[in-house]
Amino acid sequence: MKRRLSLAFGALIVAAALAAIAAPRALAISATYGTGAGFCHSVTSAGYDLGANYDNVWACGPTGEHDFKDKPFEDADYGFQCTELANRFLWDAHHVTPVSGNSLVGGNFVATVHAEDKSIPVGVSGTTALPAPGDIISMWEGSGSRGQNGSDSHVAVVTGVKKTSSGWAISVMEENATEENGSRKHIDGSNTITVSATGAKWSYNSGYYTSFDWLVFGKAGFVYALHGNGAVYRRAAGAAGCSSATDCGAWTQVDSVGSGDVAIAASDG
Asked: How far is the C-alpha of 235 from the C-alpha of 63, rounded, in Å?
């Protein structure tokens, strides 16, 4: 796949800088360019929406079968790659300037954006942190082609996070999904990342990717963390007085992650 394209509870590193996300550099395009179901076909006559959408940004196809550019979201003739969608969502949903470069792949998309703008916090898998809808998540496995800088790494947009009997299910919107056993999977532009109850184990496509990091935007107004017993807690994004990673004020236990969560109980952070 060419150009595809951490945090203890009570020590949620990503939270401290949420209030200070910087304004984007000016681009000579509309703030809403790239939105709507008709966008995919407007870029190329072969373009079509995959069905998945979030915040009026739609996942598009095809990929390399019909080479075309979609500047500034995709600056090479690769079609609708995973980084194209991530860049488009970055611009349309968060008003952050797209990133580019010959070394840009899905696995290092989050790191690349954070290097450009360090005021955007980053969450990491394998800890007690959870992403929220509207965050952008990179994924990879080991090293080589599926490693963080490999051409078969991936990036997607988080669209939902739900509790399951064994942990958590993170729904994502994506383009140019991975191939598994030679077959194209999830061509509808959506997929699921599974997370164990404690947050220790993460998996996409049955272990195709097991390492993840994400840009934390606090779009739902909160940041989230897992307690050791599997319960989830939230705290207001960019809460006043959260001057360090270990002093972020009160946490509230909730029943889910996202704009529809319901408060259950309160706890000191």
From this structure: 39
Going by the DSSP 8-state scheme, the letter that residue 163 receives in this structure is E
Residue 232: HSE in the Cβ half-sphere, 13 Å Cα cutoff: 26
- pTM of structure: 0.79
Tokens of 152: 């078969």
pLDDT tens digits, one per residue of 198-232: 889 999 999 999 999 999 987 656 677 776 666 77
